Structure formats: structure tokens, C-alpha cells
Fold this sequence. Notes:
Blueprint lengths: L6 E4 L3 H12 L6 E4 L10 H7 L19 E3 L3 E5 L4 E4 L4 E3 L2 E4 L3 E3 L16 H11 L5 E4 L3 H12 L4 E5 L5 H18 L2 E5 L5 E3 L5 E3 L5 E3 L2 E4 L3 E3 L10 E2 L2 E4 L10 E3 L4 E3 L13 H15 L12 E6 L2 E6 L10 E5 L4 E7 L5 E6 L5 H8 L8
Helix pairs in contact: 1-6
Amino acid sequence: MTAPRSVLIVGESLAGTTAARHLRTLGHTGPLTIIGAEEHGAYSRPPLSKVVLKDPAADQTLGLVLDGIDVDVIRSAAVAADTRRRTVTTADGRQVGYDALIVATGADARRLAAPGQRGELVLRTLDDARQLRARLAHAGSAIVVGAGFLGMEVASACAARGIPVTVVDADRPLERILGDHLSAEITARASAHGIRFIQATGFATLTGDPVSGVALPDGTELTADLVVTCAGEAPCVGWLAGTGLADRLGVGIDHACATTVPGVFAAGDVTYLRGDGTRPDRRAPFWSNAVAQGRTAAASALGLPPPGPAQDDYFWTEVAGLTVKIVGRLPLLGEPTTVQGSVSDGRALLTWSQADGTSTAVAYGLRRPVAALRALAATSLPPPP
Length: 385
């Protein structure tokens, strides 16, 4: 394939900025444009729940620098795309042409509020984090809806401030991701740090206008000074209406980050990896995948082979002061194949053997370099009996 004359990236995200830098690294000298709607410019999102909620000084450390790579940045949201004419229209009325397009618009926080219901708090942007941090300074109680990575990190930030916090979910903390074995230990640790957990029998709804509580399916109603929804994310694909590029899961890509439309590639939280007959469609909205896919999409846009896999299964979180690092496929099912140390003591190195022959390595409360975890995960282990 002939290298395109111009590359347009829609989304000033981690995936988008990674793609831009990698395009120049790979030798692309043609026009390069990023369309982004974020007024603060590109910044890293994982620290929002891990650091920004605790420390205002962290606000200044998040920026993803684009200096020195000769890129034109348009700060106006993309509102439409015409893949036949190869143009993208922005909210301020500009039409931007391209030879190759990389979709990197990420995702928005999934919301639970009813139409017109005010005051729902989420955590997806820097402004969200600043607002939540300000509210934490005066809150006497909190409810977090959702017990995934984000929900438990927000609950941990509340507990660190001494705010009584209740987490509501249909499953135990991180159970859908880390399985029964680690979920039970994390639940116990969170409880010891003042985080209460309620396992609902179904979906909770927000109450009050503005939001002041949660109603559970069994009729129980909870109220708090602060209610935060951490119920996942929704891919930002509205601007792609009519292109055939997106569905309810986002923008489907293959292992080269190519979409079903020639000349259009995608990376980051807006994507899902299309199934191949042996594996189902798979969403994995984590920062490590945003980086891997940004690089892959850049190479594919130039007609070059991918620099590596389009999926990088590395994740980390911190719950009640304990760090959990994971390399490998999720979810974790059943008992670990190997255990070094003690999970109950908060210091363990564990592995799980996956059905596809790969392994997942977990450093639970231990400081282990990511490279060491990758090496451990690359070791083929027999499945448990």
C-alpha cells in the first residue's frame, strides 16, 4: 500500500496522541491533523481516580505532550464523517479531508440518571475529577454505584478521607474481573478500611433531583451527601452515524486495527476486537490497549506491518492502599494455578492458566516490575485439575 498523503486522527486521547507520535516515528512526513473536543488538551486518565482525587498538584502532571511532532490540532468536536468522500465535519463547521483516518474518540462515562434528573456525578474527565475532589472535601457520607476498578478506586479515595462510603453492585467487588478468589479478599480488605458493600439483586436507580441517593430493587433506599456512578463506559460513536463503522460495542477492529471500511482504522476505548470464529467480540478499555492500538493503527495507516499485538493485557489498580498488577487475560476463573506468598497477608504472586493456553500473572500487594510479570505470564502452565 502506498503511504497516505494525509492522516487525520479524531480524538485527542491517549490512543490518538500515541498514534500521532508513532506516525512521525515511522517516518510519515505528510500532513497530520488531530480533531479533539477536550478543552484541556490531551491528558492521561488513569491518574484521575488514583491520584487527582487526593492531590490537586497532580492536575499539572497529566498532560500528553505533542510538541515537536508537527501536528495540526483542531479543538472542535467531530460531528459527522463521510467515508466515501473521506471527510470529517466538526462542530464549528469545518470539513477536514483525509487519505487515512484513525478513530480514537474514546468513551464517555455510562450514566444512570433518568432524563432530566440533575446532579449525577461520574468520573471520566479532568473536570469530573476536580468536581468530585471538591465535593469530597465537604462530604460526610458517600455512595458509589459500581464495584469495578473505578468504583473501588473512588471508594478508596473516600475511605482515605475518613468518609463512610457504601459501594452498591450486583456482584462483589471486582468479582466479574478478578473472580471469586481475589474478590473475597479484596472485599474483606475494603471492609477493614471502612468501605461498606451492598450486593443488590439487580440494577440500582438514582433517587432525588438533584441526585441524593440510590433505590435498590428490593425497595431499600440509601441516601448520602455524595453519590457517584461508576457503571462503565459508552463508546463515543455518535459522530459516526451512517458510516457503518460502529455498533453498540463501538468500532470493531481486527488485529491490525483496521475497520470494515478501507482507509479507516481505530484505536483505544472506542474499539472492540472483532471475534474470529474461535473468540467472541472483546472490549478491553484499558490504557495499555490504547497505547498498543495507537501504535498499531499508525503503522497500518502507513501500510506497514503492526509493531506488535493490538491487545496489551496489562492492568493495575489500587484498593484500600493495596496495589494489584495484572498481566494476561481476564476474567480470572476458579482457583489460581500457582501461589507464592499469602493473599490474606496482602503479599502474593499468583498465576492462572487460561483455556486458550496462555497464563495470567497477578502481583497482589507486591512490587514487581511489569517486565517480570510479562515473563511470568508468558510461561505456559498446565490447567488446574
